[in-house]
Amino acid sequence: MDWNKQYPTLLEEAEAWGFMHIFIMDTKGIGYYAETNTIKDQSKEAFFTDISGDKYYVTEPFVDAKEKKSITTITAPIKKDGVVIGNICGVIDLSKINEFIQNVKIGESGYAFLLRKNGEFVAHNDMSLVYNQINIVEADDEYSNLKGFSTLIESVENGESGTKEIDLDGQKIITAYNPVENTPWSIVLVANEDELLAGVDKMILLQIIITIVIIIFAVIISYVVKRSLLVWKNQQQHCKNLIP
């Protein structure tokens, strides 16, 4: 690869394709980063192992502390005469997913948040929890005073679904949690029992709400990911010309 000739093209394509930035990883684990005009040896990194081969891959979300954004990387194979010669990688902003989670309202004070299995926030009303990579077990007073909260976290980490009642400073809080299909995340709904409709089974009501939220959320994730993969498929001919 003549990097001096190729990286200006990648810079242009990143903007045209709607990615924050893009880079190429060859089959030896050498990454060519257009945004910073740098070349890195990543052959010993788990990222190289994860994306290698004839497959599309979506990474765990991670935080760009400099840009204050939650982002993920989508990769696709580059083929020449049917043989994989590298992978094209594009970084996308998860703002649409964050916006959806922040707009979920249950009663006056109920809300939703998204967790990784390790307990770190992916999306929350308070995005500083995401940007600072706060683990929910280590979060401040909003969570540390929840009685029985450790059992909820254990369920989330195990990828389970269900509902739990938790006491918060004398107020009964109902939570519902469910893993998000095809991701390493779980969505959690938190509602004050007094704000849910009287005369109904509130656990069932919250389960219905979380089911609806999960369906809508799945559509959004599908749109974000599939749109990016479609871009890669449409650019396969161009991408293979970037690697000799």
Overview of the molecule:
The chain is α+β, with helices and mostly antiparallel strands and 244 residues long. It folds into two domains: 3-94 and 224-240, 2-Layer Sandwich (Beta-Lactamase), CATH 3.30.450; 95-219, PAS domain (Beta-Lactamase). The chain is 35% helix and 31% strand. The strands form two sheets. Strands 1, 2, 3, 4, 5, 6 and 7 form a seven-stranded antiparallel beta sheet that branches. It has a five-stranded antiparallel beta sheet with strand order 9-8-12-11-10, with helices on both faces. Helix 3 runs antiparallel to helix 7. It starts with a helix and ends with a helix.
Write the layout of secondary structure elements.
Elements: H1 3-17, E1 21-26, E2 30-33, E3 38-41, H2 46-51, E4 57-58, E5 62-64, E6 69-80, E7 83-93, H3 95-103, E8 111-116, E9 121-123, H4 128-131, H5 141-144, H6 149-157, E10 162-168, E11 171-179, E12 185-192, H7 202-234, H8 236-240
Antiparallel strand pairs: 1-2, 1-7, 2-3, 4-6, 5-6, 6-7, 8-9, 8-12, 10-11, 11-12
For the termini, the CA-CA separation is 6 Å
Write down how many β-strands occur, each being a DSSP E stretch of 2 or more residues: 12
Structural class: alpha+beta
Indicate the percent of residues in helices. 25-40%
CATH architecture group name of the largest domain: 2-Layer Sandwich
For this structure, the CATH topology of the largest domain is Beta-Lactamase
Q: What would you give as the CATH superfamily of the largest domain? A: PAS domain
Topology as a string of helices (H) and strands (E): HEEEHEEEEHEEHHHEEEHH
Radius of gyration: 21 Å
Quote the beta fraction: 25-35%
Q: Number of folding domains?
A: 2
Unreliable segments (pLDDT under 50, ≥5 consecutive)?
Answer: none
Averaged pLDDT, please? 75
